[in-house]
Amino acid sequence: MIVNSLSLCYHNKLILAPMVRVGTLPMRLLALDYGADIVYCEELIDLKMLQCKRVVNEALSTVDFVAPDDRVVFRTCEREQSKVVFQMGTSDAERALAVARLVENDVAGIDVNMGCPKEYSTKGGMGAALLSDPDKIEKILSTLVKGTRRPVTCKIRILPSLEDTLSLVKRIERTGIAAIAVHGRKREERPQHPVSCEAIKAIAETLSIPVIANGGSHDHIQGYLDIEDFRRATAASSVMVARAAMWNPSIFLKEGPRPLEEVMQKYIRYAVQYDNHYTNTKYCLCQMLREQLESPQGRLLHAAQSSQEICEAFGLGAFYEETTRELDARRAKLLARSPEEAEGPAEDTSGIIKMAIKFDRRAYSPQITPKMCLLEWCRREKLAQPVYETVQRPLDRLFCSVVTVAEQKYQSTLWDKSKKLAEQAAAIVCLRSQGLPEGRLGEESPSLHKRKREALDQDPGDPRTQEPAMPGELCKKPFVALASGQESPLEGW
């Protein structure tokens, strides 16, 4: 996916601001649908990005930047390729340039975060910490402008004095950047503090490059017409909207915002179509619901532990099933085209007990999982702990696990979305073949319950009552590095 090297125009634009955990692909696409001209991804740290590999995901028609733990750090698609700006957190010019070159063929612009006041950004000298080091700012931006084919921007906050702020932005402009976004608050100020339209206006009147006004959601921006009012009050070229767009992305519509239920359903559809992790989907929906989180639908969302459950909470269960079938069919077609990649572990599979099983966490007690049951049974029988060997197919990124217990191997023939789920399925195969309880709702596992009761009766500070550490697990990697996934810790056990 190659974007031409023409500059992205920052004049008279409506822009979705970079927001941590919010600015992922579904939200960016939704904002574009509702009228945003440019969308920023969430801040992504340079060190994390430099560990990533660029992967073309044919099943989803996306380009993924995948970390060694197999987590998708950044996902983009053709729909946004001429509109998306990649924002990085960095404190080093060479690392910044390396990241820019990694992503420049898949994005429309490069931005450096120089305004985030949160500790996770500033502790490494990034974000608002850069505001106290103009020399470093100049080096980072100059290096990027000279070294990448994409327009470079930065996002800052105002300094304690207007004089220092104007001095800094003039120096930033001389680096050759295409535009500058200004959050009209100081580093220590938060949303409840008033945004300084006067400071943004002074900057806009001083510079010749486009100034993007940001920070108006709390005091100024309640609807589409307010965006233009905020632009005029700041004399800015464009406006960047954060929380007001997070609450309802249809704020960019000239006709006025759409009903929240409609917006959330459209967001969920994008999340399912692009395989967004359910925890991120759930987080964004919670931001939209806000005061409605205690409503019946809000409670269903709060209880949801998968994309399927989220869909069911919003009346999209049939959509989830249909979309999942389509994705599975697409993956199967891709696998059929490359049969050599569809094989399982590169070892002799004779003697493995196999069943077609998937782990559906809704059918199991939240306190007891199949892996826990299997481990407890091995301890009781004085057997060696179970050993899981898990592989991943590179084409569809699905997992299959084989568990060895008492020199016998067990495997589910169904591949799963995460390493943890695949291991749970393998554990179920072993337990069912032995006729053992597996932790399903309604089952009793006396030894596990007894252990819990004994623990409650003893002093938790007594070292004799400490549970032995969970065993390490052997994961062979014949294809690619394995991921722990982003599921809740309970899914791992």
UniProtKB/TrEMBL annotation:
Cross-referenced PROSITE patterns: UPF0034
Region Disordered, residue ranges: 438-473
All residue ranges annotated as the DRBM domain in the record: 370-435
Keyword Oxidoreductase attributed: yes
Alphabetic keyword roster: Flavoprotein, FMN, Oxidoreductase, tRNA processing
Signal peptide range in chain numbering: none
Gene3D superfamilies: 3.30.160.20, Aldolase class I (3.20.20.70)
InterPro entries: Aldolase_TIM, dsRBD_dom, DUS-like_FMN-bd, DUS2_DSRM, tRNA-DUS-like, tRNA_hU_synthase_CS
tRNA processing recorded as keyword: yes
Reported cofactor(s): FMN
TM helices/strands, residue ranges: none
Protein's name in the database: DRBM domain-containing protein
